[in-house]
Amino acid sequence: MKDKIVVVTGGNSGMGLATTIELARQGAKVIMVCRSRERGEAALASARLKSGSQQIELMLCDLASLESIRRFAADFIASYPVLDVLVNNAGVVSVKRQLTADGFELDLGVNHLGHFLLTDLLLEPLKGAEQGRVVVVASGAYKIGKMYYSDPTLSRGYNPAKAYGRSKLANILFTRELAARLQGTRVTVNAVHPGAVGTNIGVNRETGFGRSVLKLLSYFFLTPEQGADTAVYLATAPELKETTGQYYYRRKINELSPRAKSREEAQRLWLWSREQVGLD
Questions:
Q1: For residues 193 and 189, what is the distance between their CA atoms, to the nearest angstrom?
Q2: Of 47, 174, 195, 267, which is least packed with CB atoms within 10 Å of its CB?
Q3: Mean pLDDT across the stretch 169-185?
Q4: pLDDT band at 201 (very low <50, low <70, confident <90, very high)
Q5: Average pLDDT of the chain to the nearest whole number
Q6: How far apart are CA 48 and CA 31, in angstroms?
Q7: Residue 217 confidence class, pLDDT cut points 50, 70, 90
Q8: What is the pTM of this model?
Q9: Which domains does the chain possess?
Q10: What's the count of helices (H) and strands (E) in the chain, helices before strands?
């Protein structure tokens, strides 16, 4: 990975930080993308120390804002005309229904639509790489997901599992459709289920209930480093240079549900997503 250019969204905490550290340790130049400069600078110092590399840079982007995403992409391309690996890692789990600045339900807006636009804007730098890779951090929660096109903001009934499951199904459908559309290029696209990573669980750690849940479940959690392992594998393994459109768990291809494998579902989501983020 020496001198490869890598972008990791949500690279300042949890699995994203672990991914950043390991890729930098392997010699990559890593752009750590996050919303907060304060948290980002603290994470940047930690990542440089733990990786032993100064080849980590902080760039700001709020994936809940299409304007912020477009600004980040323009700034990135101005500095880096080639991108070797894009790790779409950032994600949210919203306990209460919230909307983004652009009016999208928050989980779908950040986990899918924000990354959908970001990936589209960075396709030319990816195509310019010797072998570009997109790694999409999904989840086994996709199995409970449905798209709800008639109520995209979930105004008629919200619960966290419904919202998160939908966003993760969207991740899988996006991965497969983008991979199909990039056939014949040097860019591959694969998704990963990282397992249950404790730092990524969507509970409020400031409440007694949240702390109790974390304590109860902590025995079953993977560390951020364990969760990042397959994402790093997808970003780096030479033997995967022609593997695309797959869903991985613990470095192995996992079988998908019929809904997640549906080309019709994937194409419908693709067209809907392009319209939502203003690409059509």
A1: 14
A2: 267
A3: 98
A4: very low
A5: 92
A6: 12
A7: very low
A8: 0.91
A9: 5-277 (3.40.50.720)
A10: 11, 8
Average pLDDT (91-119) is 96
With tokens 């440089």, the residue in question is 48
Tell me if residue 207 falls in helix, strand or coil.
coil
The owner of tokens 């109520």 is 151
In the chain, what is the straight-line distance between the N-terminal and C-terminal CA atoms, in Å?
A: 36
- Who's near 7: CB < 8 A, 6+ residues apart? 30, 31, 33, 76, 83, 85, 86, 87, 122
Nearest to 19 by CA among 215, 257, 224, 191: 224
9 vs 203: which has the higher pLDDT: 9
Residues serving a catalytic function are 164
Distance separating alpha carbons of residues 15 and 8, to the nearest angstrom:
10
Cα 110 to Cα 107: distance, rounded to the nearest angstrom: 6
Do the Cβ atoms of 221 and 200 come closer than 8 Å? no
- Mapped onto helix, strand or coil, the DSSP state of residue 59 is strand
The candidate with the shortest Cα–Cα distance to 193, out of 179, 167, 174, 172, is 172
